[in-house]
Amino acid sequence: MNSRNLFRALTKPLFIHNMCKRQKSYKVVKRPDPSSLKMPNLADAPSIMDIIKEKLRLNGPLTVAEYMNIVITNPTEGYYMKKDVIGETGDFITSPEISQLFGEILAVWFYAETQKMCSGKPLQIVELGPGKATLLIDILRVLNRYGYKASDLSLHLVEISSTMQLLQANRLCATHKETGLELPYNHEGETASGIKVYWYNDLKKVPKNFSWYIAHEFFDVLPVHKFEKTEKGWREILIDLDENGKLQYRIAANETQSVKVLVRPPLDAGDRMELEISPRALGIARQLANRVDQHGGLALIADYGHNGDKGDTFRAFHKHKVVDPLENPGEADLTADVDFSQLRISASMTPGEENYAVVVGPVKQTEFLERMQAAVRLQVLLDNVNTDEEKEKIKAAYEMLVDPKKMGERFKFMAFYPSAMAPILQKFPPLGFSTLK
Predict the structure, then answer these.
(1) Which of 181, 367, 404, 432 could form a disulfide with 409 if both were Cys (CB 3.0 to 4.6 A apart)?
(2) Strand 274-277 and strand 225-230: pairing?
(3) What is the pTM (predicted TM-score) of this model?
(4) Distance CA 312, CA 336 (A)
(5) Which of 216, 162, 220, 168 is nearest to 189 (CA)?
(6) What is the structure's pLDDT at 276?
(7) 242-268: buried (b, 16+ CB within 10 Å) or exposed (e) per residue?
(8) How far is CA 211 from the centre of its chain?
(9) CA distance 22 to 375
(10) Measured between alpha carbons, how far apart are the two ends of the chain, in Å?
(11) Would you state the pLDDT for residue 270?
(12) Coil, strand or helix: which one is 13?
């Protein structure tokens, strides 16, 4: 008997014995009655606060950016994922919802500035965070007057909320459907006039063609890191639990990675003691600048913001009132004013850089609208209504947009042009951003 057979002979009885012992230890498991099974109840899903507490337990204090990201974009409980939050019955209202004049003026601006470079056909209209799609509807109405046909246009919406995607599709499209994972867009549709509409969850997936890029009240909801200057240098503001289990701010004892990466010249220029920086905002500004410069088009940003003179603007809105952003997370809109000086730095590097664009602005909303002759359009709207009540509503809406104490000064406009447009803009200054002589 060779060694291999000898090994088999010696181990076989033991193997059989062990198998027998295992077989004797097996238990018969009775399957449950299907009628007794219960489907998961969405009401039993963890709340945003539960998710935050678990994150704190596992990883320690959160940055403000991490907190905003959880509250706003959590797949099931995120603020923008669950319901329509825009309008009189929601938590805030936007300029397109206040007056049709706003979207019409933006359409005129895009069209007029495009004529300085080309015919603008075919054209992609790309909107980041389209809300209820009201702005797009107003823009399309104007483009129809300018002779654009369905074959000249396509709409590309960057939207992460499936709830908002469905709302937008129902307002824009005659037909629409979800698409498979193999496509860059996750939803597609077609307007009654035949314009193709596509939805994406990331700007990077939008085709790189000649485009009008619109970012209206988009940058202000992108997560920000908050910093404070101390005797030991810049330190990050974090969010933690107090002894009563409530959320509170605390300042990091040491430099966080965000301080090392983000707080450096020129972003920390000036004498500010507080600073808010959004890496995602800087990255998207670079993308827009690069797309406009390399593939043609225009980008227009309109948002709450400042030009680098504020540092603590993080807040929340609930039922149109400012509330504590750390109370009842998921029930209020979280926002921080856009630092337009940072967007300019990110988008307007030296010529030859990958992300070079001509940047104009910011200018106040009241200045932009008045320079675009919004008052003339207002009079047309007033002439086309019959009752005093309707006229007063139109006037009140216009005042909301331009009154410095309301939206007129708090909202700012900034635009990106291709670098090749620099000499043309010297001769024909950007409409809305310069006073006509």
Answers:
(1) 404
(2) antiparallel
(3) 0.86
(4) 8
(5) 168
(6) 97
(7) eeeeebeeeebeeebebbeebbeeebe
(8) 18
(9) 88
(10) 110
(11) 76
(12) helix
